[in-house]
Every structure is written in structure tokens, then in C-alpha cells.
């Protein structure tokens, strides 16, 4: 090599072994992974077209159909995070000028608005205060007023800790010739959602929340009604990477032989699901109730008023008066190696968020975090006497 | 739960432990990962805003700057595969009606054309036969004829096994007020590329090739010239997930305090790089020469005529007369647990591709695959007497 070259040196830190602290992740995600998932992460790779991987993809599809409670053939995992699945949902459905209605009661409705707008949709918002959910009547008024072809709503609003009731919503949307798109990133597996029965047309989630796997493979499913809209598009989706016609051919969702020359790589993750959905929902509910009772015993006030509207996977409390939320979370991280989060978007500065997701939703973890929060409340009071 | 519900059952296979064969991946990627990388894959997760992760991100950035040989501040890893990085490059730069010139001598120029067209660009192609590369004169004629703002070219054409010379290309493009975008998915780390010195404006790669890590984190870098185009866009990029202004804020590339409420998750991968770039380039070259000599000794004909134009990471040979390529690859997979690939796109049916990437580029692996190919040639001849 010529000595005239100005070499950029490698950072010395790359020669050091990777060191990562062992931490209990009780924020709104990621959650910790169980040993079975972690050990799968250390397996050697196989090719993206090997028959064993095709089998694993079929298993993943079946696992997603189970956890979504759907029989939709177009069900697969996106090679990206939950955000990426959100974009995949919009960009396969939306064409320039299409009307979209987004329910906004926290950050995810705002994000959906941003994404759909970038794609050229005419986006209208149905707005409620952070901490509240939408009634069927309110949604019907929005559908009547705006005649959208697509309605977006968040099942588990992780910025506020609200769970959105979904019963009857699919039928309502379909009466107005509208597709129902639901974000279940923070809720899937932790609280009931029944895609086919509730008439949800597009449903997606992430892997690093209740599923307790690393981020990077995100479940998504499309009803036949949604597929029809995709098939009858006038323009190609603006992404090849997330084009459902391409992905569907690779995942064998369209009844044709798999497209073999599709150079898409997927990361293999097996959804951990030992106990079954109903038990998972029950455990998440019980542990959330146990946490909320403990928080109230410490004198803390829950952010979501109605008990039934409380998301069991992300529990929100008001930042108590006389405290700085950041001091509390930093105290707990520093002294207990536990992640607890502040708010996000409209709840920033107002709330603390305690996640109990998947592998992390256990009674011992609740005890640990309650102990840590109690201690933080003693140490972090401002203007102590 | 009500008994009226039609439950979708979990697939029985999900209750089985994951079983993956141990296979030598000598196709065009993915390659096998070394133990150090695999063991990092079994680490517990940490939060996407924890200070340890911020440090790891800075290390990753430094590692990419080293392997790209660039000092660009806007250097980071995309949460997706190489395809996703390709889209990130185009969608941050291209606006409706922008003129793009794509060099097409294999599948990747076609893919670039597809992606840029979806984004509304006016795409022109500069075409050569698969197996050939482009000269500066040919490219200059294309720039003169079409006046594009962006020129796309593939450094390592993995569908044909050609390495594209890059010296002088940046200067040429800049004389025509054009940005230079280079795909180095199949070449990075295996053959020299010097981003700053060669005047490359946008460079990206994947993690599952020479870097020998799992797919899902893809290096990308933008020159200040490219950043300027991004900053002066009239419209927002159509993706939030891949919006470089957002990613740059999260990765701390813009000189401002990091954007803390950015809910993007990244997968931690430490680029393995023990020996240094020059030794890596040298080893890839030596092992490729050793393989090519062995293939010729078996009577096989190399697809790329000029020795200097042969990509050391993906080696291509003509399918020998009297053979079906698929029988050869299946024989080798079945009897030797080695992946060797057929062609892709324009080379489909015509060539066999043998990848020697990163951790897999070793003399013992070459011996193993030569032995397997020799045996396959004896067993797979059609119409045997």
C-alpha cells in the first residue's frame, strides 16, 4: 500500500471484548430475553433459501397466526423493527392522495400521521387527550366526517399506558368501507387481541416487547380485504424491501411456488411461547395489578384513570410532586441496574413508565422494582430538609 | 375465554427446540460467523438509550469509518439488511423527477433502477454484458448524455463475480456535478475500497458477507457533498425509519446533543476485525487465486475473463457442459454440507458461484470445496455411460 494514503485507524475499543451489563429492562421495551432465545442467537447461520430455513419461516408464520389469532395467508415477519413494520403497513396500502384517518392519543398516532403524510396520503387526525381511549361513537363520527379508506389506531399506547378496546371496531370500519390498521407493538401477547374476530385488516407488532426476543423481526398480517387493496394498487409501493408482493412470494403466502431468486435475508427468531396465549394474558394482567397496587401503596398515582383501560405491559404513574423524573430513573439504574423510563411525546416529563413484558412480567421482578422505586422516593426528594 | 371463539392453534413445531444444521456457507452470502460474533449474539439486551449502547454505537461508527476508510461524520449502521441500506441511500437523496444514472452489468444495477424508479426518479441505464465492468470513458459518456445528479455503480457484482475499478470515478462524477453512489455489499473488506480517496459520496454494505456477522445491521456513510443534497431537499424522505436526519440525530452524527426520544432500536453487532484491512484484502486475494487455480485444474472455466476484474469474495465459473448446475449444488449440499450457489438474474443457469468471505476465506475451506466440486463433477454428469 502506498504510504501517501491517509489511513483511517480502527478504534482501539474494537479490539476489546464486548462488555454489556446485566440489567433488568422494565422500560417500555426492549425487554430481557429468556435463555432459550439468547441461546438461539448464538447459533450458526444458514442460507436464506435452505430448506431448514423455509421450514423455520413456515413455523414463524404459524406462530404469528397463533399469537395474532388469524388465519390470514399473508402473515410474515418483516426484517426490521416495529417501526419498520409500521412503515410496511402504510406503504403497501397508501397511494398518493389516499385519505387516512389516524387516532391520536399519544406518540404513535402522531408517528402514523408523519409516515402516511410522507407517502403522500391526505391524513386527518382524531384526537383525544393522552391517557384516554376512543369510543366507537367517536370513531364513527370521524369515519363519517372524513371517509378515509384506512383508519389507524394504537392498541397499546406505550407513551401513556392506555389499552384501546377493539371489539366492534372492525365491523364499524367495514360499514364505512374503511380498512382497520392496528398497532400492537407494545400490547401483543400481553393483553387479548383477536385479529380475525375483531375484524382487524392489518396488524403488526415488534419482537423486543412481550415476545422477549431481540429487535429486528416484526410480525405483520394482512386480511384478504387489505390484500385486495394491495393487489389493485395503481402504482408500485415506494419500497422494494417492504413490498408485500415480493415478501409474500418469498414467504410462500400467495399459493405459488416460492420465489427462489429473492435475495432477502431474514434473521431467525423463534417466538417463545410455552404457556399459551390465555395464560400469558392472565399473567400480564395479574402482575400489572400487583404492581399497580404496590405503586399506590407507595403513595403514587396511576396515570390512566379507568382500571380496564390500563395497559398491563406498560404501566404509567404520574411523576410525584417534588421529584424530577430523571433523578428517579437514574437512581434506580445506578443502584439497582433496573431500567424504568420517563414519558415519551405528550407524556414526556409527566409520567414514569414501568414495563412488564413477556419474560420480564414476573412477581419477583415486580417486588424488585417496587423496592427500588420506594428507595428512590426516599433519596430523590428535591429540597430535602 | 368464551368457547364460541374459533381458536387458531399454535404450531406444534414451536414447542420443539430450534435445530439448525452446521453448514459451510460458500455461497454469495450469508457467510458463517466466527465464535466471537456468535457469542455476542447470545448476550442479554440493553436499552437503546443506555450509555453503554451509546458507547457501542460510537465504536461501531469508528469501525465503519475504518473499514470504509472515511472521515465522514454521517456514518452509521442501518437497522436492516444490505437491501435496506440500498433503499436508505436512494430515498434520502432522490426526489420526484431527479435524474439518476445506474450502471447495469448484473442484478444490482437492475435492482437500483427498480428502487430509484419507485421513488419517482427518472432513471437511465448504462448497460454492459454481465461479467464485464465499466471504463471511465464509458461512464463519462453516460454522464455527458444524461446529466444525472446521482450515479449508481456496484463495486462487487455478486451475480457475476466482477469487481469494478473505482479509482478516478469520484473526480469524474464531481466534474459533472454528480454524486457517486457505490454498492459494496459483496466486496467490503474483501478487496480494497477507499471511500474518501476515491471520492465516493455514498457507500453502503451488509453485515452477513465479509464482515461475517448476522444480517440486520448495514454500514452506510455519506460525504459532506451528499449531506448537502439531503439538507436541501424540498420534500421529506418518504420513510421515517430510514430518514438520515432522524438517524443522524440518534447516532450523534450532526454535532448536536443526541435526540433522546428517538425510539429506534438497533441490534448490536461488533464488526470482527482482528487483522486489519490490508491483511484481510491480501488473504481474500490469495485464497481466491488458490481457489481459481484449483477450479481450472478441475477443467472448469472462469466466468470473468480479466484476472484483475475477478471479485475475490464471489468466484464465478461457467456451468460445465453436460451438467445441470442444480444437481451440482444439491450434491455438494447433501454430501458435504457446503453451500455453493447457482447464478442470479442475468447469470442464472449459466454460472456457479463460490463465496469466500471473511471468516470463511481460508485455505482449508478452499480445499474442502474443491474436493466436493471434484466429487460432484464425477457424480453429476448427465447421460452417463
Briefly say what this structure is:
Chain A contains eleven helices and 14 strands.
Pair with the biggest interface:
A-B, 99 and 97 residues
**N-to-C SSE string of chain A, H for helix and E for strand:** EHHEHEHEHEEEHEEEHHHEHEEEH
| Helix content class of chain A | 25-40%
Q: Which regions of chain A are unreliable across 5 or more consecutive residues at pLDDT < 50?
A: 261-274
Structure explained in plain terms:
Two copies of one chain form a homodimer. Chain A is 34% helix and 14% strand. Chain A has 385 residues and is α/β, with parallel strands linked by helices. In chain A, the strands form four sheets. Chain A has a seven-stranded mixed beta sheet with strand order 2-10-9-8-5-3-4, with helices on both faces. In chain A, strands 11-14-13 form a three-stranded antiparallel beta sheet, with helices on one face. Chain A starts with 23 loop residues before the first strand and ends in a 6-residue tail after the last helix. At the A-B interface, helix 1, helix 2, helix 3 and helix 4 of A face helix 1, helix 2, helix 3 and helix 4 of B.
Amino acid at each position: 500500500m502506498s504510504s501517501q494514503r491517509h489511513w483511517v485507524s480502527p478504534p482501539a475499543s474494537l479490539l476489546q471484548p464486548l462488555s454489556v451489563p446485566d440489567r433488568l429492562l422494565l422500560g417500555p421495551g426492549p425487554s430481557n430475553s429468556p435463555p432459550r432465545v439468547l441461546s438461539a442467537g448464538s447459533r450458526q447461520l444458514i442460507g436464506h433459501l435452505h430448506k431448514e430455513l423455509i421450514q423455520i419461516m413456515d413455523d414463524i408464520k404459524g406462530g404469528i397466526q397463533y399469537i395474532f389469532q388469524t388465519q390470514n395467508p399473508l402473515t410474515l415477519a418483516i426484517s426490521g423493527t416495529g417501526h419498520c413494520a409500521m412503515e410496511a403497513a402504510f406503504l403497501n396500502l397508501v397511494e398518493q392522495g389516499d385519505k387516512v384517518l389516524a387516532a391520536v392519543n399519544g406518540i404513535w398516532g402522531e408517528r402514523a400521521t408523519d409516515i402516511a403524510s410522507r407517502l403522500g396520503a391526505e391524513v386527518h387526525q382524531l384526537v383525544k387527550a393522552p391517557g384516554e381511549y376512543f369510543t366507537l361513537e367517536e370513531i364513527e363520527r370521524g369515519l363519517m366526517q372524513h371517509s378515509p379508506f384506512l383508519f389507524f389506531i394504537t392498541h397499546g399506547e406505550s407513551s401513556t399506558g392506555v389499552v384501546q378496546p377493539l371489539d366492534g371496531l372492525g365491523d364499524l370500519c367495514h360499514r364505512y368501507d374503511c380498512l382497520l390498521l392496528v398497532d400492537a407493538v407494545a400490547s401483543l401477547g400481553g393483553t387479548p387481541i383477536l385479529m380475525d374476530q375483531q375484524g382487524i385488516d392489518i396488524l403488526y407488532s415488534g419482537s423486543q416487547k412481550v415476545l422477549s426476543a431481540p429487535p429486528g423481526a416484526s410480525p405483520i398480517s394482512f386480511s384478504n380485504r387489505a390484500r385486495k387493496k394491495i393487489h389493485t394498487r395503481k402504482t408500485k409501493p415506494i419500497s422494494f424491501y417492504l413490498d408485500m408482493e415480493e415478501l409474500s412470494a418469498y414467504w410462500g403466502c400467495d399459493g405459488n411456488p416460492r420465489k427462489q431468486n429473492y435475495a432477502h435475508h431474514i434473521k431467525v427468531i423463534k417466538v417463545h411461547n410455552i404457556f399459551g396465549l390465555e395464560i400469558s394474558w392472565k399473567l400480564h394482567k395479574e402482575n400489572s395489578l400487583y404492581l399497580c397496587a404496590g405503586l399506590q401503596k407507595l403513595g403514587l398515582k396511576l396515570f390512566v384513570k379507568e382500571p380496564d383501560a390500563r395497559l398491563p405491559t406498560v404501566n404509567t404513574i404520574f411523576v410525584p410532586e417534588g421529584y424530577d423524573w430523571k433523578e428517579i430513573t437514574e437512581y434506580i439504574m445506578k443502584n439497582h441496574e433496573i431500567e424504568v423510563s420517563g414519558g415519551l411525546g405528550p407524556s414526556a416529563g409527566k409520567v414514569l413508565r414501568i414495563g412488564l413484558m413477556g419474560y420480564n412480567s414476573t412477581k419477583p421482578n415486580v417486588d424488585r422494582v417496587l423496592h427500588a422505586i420506594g428507595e428512590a422516593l426516599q433519596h430523590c426528594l428535591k429540597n430535602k430538609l
